Amino acid sequence: MSILVCSDTRVVVQGITGREGSFHTAGMKEYGTKIVAGVTPGREGERVDGIPVYNTVKKARQESAANTSVIYVPHQFAPDAILEAADAGVELIVCITEGISTLDMIKVCCYVSIRGSRLIGPNSPGVISPGKTKVGIMPGAIHKEGSVGVVSRSGTLTYEVVQNLSMSDLGQSTCVGIGGDSIIGSSFVDILSLFEEDSETQAIVLIGEIGGRDEEEAAAFIREKVTKPVVALVAGRCAPREKRMGHAGAIISGGEGTADHKIKAFEEASISVAESPGNVAQILRAELEQEGDRQNL
Amino acid sequence: MSILVCSDTRVVVQGITGREGSFHTAGMKEYGTKIVAGVTPGREGERVDGIPVYNTVKKARQESAANTSVIYVPHQFAPDAILEAADAGVELIVCITEGISTLDMIKVCCYVSIRGSRLIGPNSPGVISPGKTKVGIMPGAIHKEGSVGVVSRSGTLTYEVVQNLSMSDLGQSTCVGIGGDSIIGSSFVDILSLFEEDSETQAIVLIGEIGGRDEEEAAAFIREKVTKPVVALVAGRCAPREKRMGHAGAIISGGEGTADHKIKAFEEASISVAESPGNVAQILRAELEQEGDRQNL
Amino acid sequence: MRIYEYQAHEVFSSHGIPTPQMELTRTARGAEEIAKRFARPVAVKAQVLVGGRGRAGAVKIAQSPDETHEAASRILSLHVKGERVREVLVQEALQIKEEYYLGITVDRSHRCPVVMASPSGGVEIEEVAKLTPQRIFKKLIHPLVGFQNYQARLLAFSLSRNKERATGIADILTSLFRIFEELDCSLAEINPLVITEDEKLCALDAKIVIDDNALYRHPELSSLGNIEAEDPLEVKARQRGLSYVRLDGEIGCIVNGAGLAMATMDLVKRYGSEPANFLDIGGGASKDRVSSALDIVLSDRKVKAILVNIFGGITRCDVVADGLKEAITRMKLNLPLVIRLSGTNEDEGRARLAHTKAILAGSMDEAARIAVREAKK
Amino acid sequence: MRIYEYQAHEVFSSHGIPTPQMELTRTARGAEEIAKRFARPVAVKAQVLVGGRGRAGAVKIAQSPDETHEAASRILSLHVKGERVREVLVQEALQIKEEYYLGITVDRSHRCPVVMASPSGGVEIEEVAKLTPQRIFKKLIHPLVGFQNYQARLLAFSLSRNKERATGIADILTSLFRIFEELDCSLAEINPLVITEDEKLCALDAKIVIDDNALYRHPELSSLGNIEAEDPLEVKARQRGLSYVRLDGEIGCIVNGAGLAMATMDLVKRYGSEPANFLDIGGGASKDRVSSALDIVLSDRKVKAILVNIFGGITRCDVVADGLKEAITRMKLNLPLVIRLSGTNEDEGRARLAHTKAILAGSMDEAARIAVREAKK
């Protein structure tokens, strides 16, 4: 088993008729993902790439039995789209949209958890279980089926690491982009606990960056609860304070959230920290061999 | 055991220095209730009837280990008072205050249930377990220790029925005034299920009135889940439609909420309905004898 | 508190909900003038706060100014469920293609607002609910996030698959919910919301009921009409802090507590008469309040006997007795007065009334029975 | 987006938070005039958008108009963390009895706003958090009910047991939270909130940071100052849809994606140099956007070598190559340009750059190493 998405994943695309939505729908379909429905209000009855479009997620669910939604609507409409998916009983909601306001996301996250759905993102590249299904915008070709779980706050940096893993013959069980914003539906800890329980996942790569305390909490969680080998990478060592580095999340305020602080937290939890994307695979390989030795004793 | 309140109940009085608060604090104390703290912002350090006053419920809880709160603050401040009690971890909150706005209560009830507290009221006369403790404004003397559970939406009508029961030697396990407003923290069904589980309660009296669907839901619940004898009384048979009869709850709009509709619901669920407060005891006595006969067969 | 239709239309209009052209008048002459200015068929609608004005003949379509005059004149002479018609609203009559229902109220069981929409507008929604419940679409509104666009769309697309029409309906629902929240409504309703022949949306009728418990937040509304304020006795009672509703029977009732008051009224009926009123003197009533209560009940000419039923908890029976005694003396009472006092200080109360002409009863059953008997004498 | 202190004070004042008497000026002469009018000691405070102005000597107390002139003149000649001081705020100096801290921000872990109060105001709150965390009181705010009075009281009574003072602090907290919500803040802070010798509350400093993602809801704020808008290159980059932050190093970086950009900068440092900037060209960049990026990086005189690191996902390497080639030709590039292209259409991209002077690297590690080496030549 992979986590979050697998070959039983049935996807409804919210915003399927938009530029982004239709482009990535084609990409997901090509990868083999079961796209079963799309939603754009007022466009019910149309088809995009052969996929039926509905006015509402509720109707789309009724007609297609979708269990996962991926959201490509513009930022002003994204909170409504997430709430709609949660209210319609969608189990997993992956929000690609970036630029959603923080106070909106606070309410949205609270509502989603009341409804019992799981939200990935916003500002996430998506989730992929290589060889099975891809729900998001990442390039499928760089991934390889395997047993490394990858969880990350960023997009292209993850691709870099994933490519490095694949080229080193370290395939992935699932790669999860939790999103670069300050308020996100699922944290590192949420995803780490899924990887820990997942029988297919044998090792974990965590890609963090400056800002917030998510990495520190992940380090504490790994020390307490994770038995599988973990390698961490933290971007932003030389990012200056009080400057915003692209992501809403990537700002350091006060003493908290520096890369050094995060790296120290990982090291204190005896977690290996890679110095650059290029040596993640190498460190992970060493960890796995050590782990193998330990098991052979 | 009684339900909701018993001799372990430790009460904090919110609004203890007010006219209502101080008056009823004396009454509760006299009845034997353990009043352990009071709250009035800015009056910390004072004493009312020997009871220490604190600025906040949090502090009062810390100092007194109160597990129950009773609220006598004016209606504009009551939502805040309920939220404060819930946030401070008070298990049972009894709100006597009447006149709280409906939309405020909607948010308050939702928050209280998220926090895991139980709310009785607002616009409730309170809760009493005769001989043990009284949390509210009802006259203690008319009650008698025993095994009849009483649940009601009104105040003096309940006293009338309770007096009638006590004079007929039908003592009460607990009497609960759930409140006369349209949005209340605990419904008939909530209290009925507690009575059903309570070993001390052998029979139940339910006192309803016009408005809403609470009695209809109670009737359905009793039919399905309640094994103990129940006698119902419904006030407002001759109340005209679209006229407001005092309580915020006591208005009939459209076809719903008439006394006849409610009485029919009880009768269809094979629940005895008393015609007036004066014959509740008599009907209940008959029910209990029948029940006894049945058990002797 | 219910406000008048024309006031609700003003609220709608200021929140961007399309309403028909309309004007208010107190005279048939005025109605005729309005119809002339509009230069088209009009609807003449009684402005009353009770429901059922349609069945009472208080809404009429008029094709011409003359017909308008006639209709207004007739309607202005009516009473609807006891409420005198003082004003009529003259509204342009539209060519109607479809009639929808939109309404927002509070769902007591789920403890949240509920937004309702139905394609069966123009009739009483309770009838639709009974006969074709599947034609009412409902959305419960979670207090955390309020009414969201997707919910408006969901309901709107249930009424019409036409995109423009659905978008218009969704916008109106959103405005209606804003009104519901801003004005602390217990009901905000459009019935019917019509689609005209030229495919325009318009709220033909407007109904707003405001939560009495929230009126303190809306001083701007206290000047608006009020059902309880219609009856002069009800106004007087309210001023004295009494909850009083005038009814059609002959037994004047004075009780402490709303539930007990209703149960007392039920008993009056059970013994073969009808209550003249609902009157709750509230908890811990003072001598003055009790005296005022008797005063008000006696001002109702229909009353043939008075029934006082007090269960003393916070209320003290001796105080009630003092108030009653004072009023009896002051007003030279010549109607039968049956009094039942129970609870706090009941003996003192009874003692104080011993030498008056009041009849003291031992229970509320007995009191009701005697009062009915006395009234029939 | 951070706004200036004086603007934040205006917001405070319009929401009923007591602020000192103050005026803004661009000249030492103006500052002197203001001090004369106030006729009392004043504080002269640089208006900059970066933190740490106190340590930079950009806040001074002046006892007289002459001293004010001198202080303003000195401050107006300063740069704070690279930001030139253009304006100073002249504020009445108060007799201070106590200094508190009040602040509201977003708690990422709990996914809700957090309201903080501390009796240790006037110093950096991060220091208090480190040294005496028990002196910071926090309340998490549930999004369902928002900031309630009881929470304001709870925090206020933690700062002072004096009823009047606590009530005043609670009111200010309530106003501050209203500002936080209405303006979509990521930070709203008063440090210090002072109690004056005559027992009055006053917000001496004011700090507001607005959530960039919510700016679309606040067109009224777009005219206000902005940290990124300070640097002309940053303004230019923003206009072209690029996320650019100028730094102090010598390697100009052009990357797609914020995380990858930071990782690239980290590598530059690891190989012994410093990045001249952060630059994220975003996803699916066009030829023009790429060309603009090179343009901007080259406008920074400190840059000695350029490092382009592209991982093509949605972004196509051939399009990036076209943009780079166009810019190279147009601008007659004479700096070392190291390019790493990987992912979508990487071969096509590399082919297009084959006959330019750009150095093509096989991995981002290699690219960073070469760029650093070239810059040192």
Write out key terms for the chains shown.
A: 297 residues; alpha/beta; Rossmann fold; 2 domains; 7-stranded mixed sheet; 9 helices; 14 strands; 36% helix; globular; C: alpha+beta; Dna Ligase, domain 1; 6-stranded antiparallel sheet; 4-stranded antiparallel sheet; 37% helix
Structure explained in plain terms:
The complex is a heterotetramer, with two copies of chain A (297 residues) and two copies of chain C (377 residues). Chain A has 297 residues and is an alpha/beta fold. Chain A has two domains: 10-120, NAD(P)-binding Rossmann-like Domain (Rossmann fold, 3-Layer(aba) Sandwich), CATH 3.40.50.720; 139-295, Succinyl-CoA synthetase domains (Rossmann fold, 3-Layer(aba) Sandwich). Chain A has helices spanning 19-31, 57-64, 78-87, 102-115, 156-167, 188-197, 214-225, 259-268, 280-296, and strands at residues 10-14, 34-39, 47-48, 51-54, 68-71, 92-95, 118-120, 126-129, 133-136, 145-152, 172-177, 203-209, 230-235, 272-274. Chain A has a seven-stranded mixed sheet, with helices on both faces. In chain A, strands 9-8-11-10-12-13-14 form a seven-stranded mixed sheet, sandwiched between helices. Helix content of chain C is 37%, strand content 25%. Chain C contains twelve helices and 18 strands. In chain C, helix 10 packs parallel to helix 11 (346-352). The mean pLDDT of chain C is 92. Chains B and D meet through helix 2, helix 3 and helix 4 of B and helix 5 and helix 6 of D.
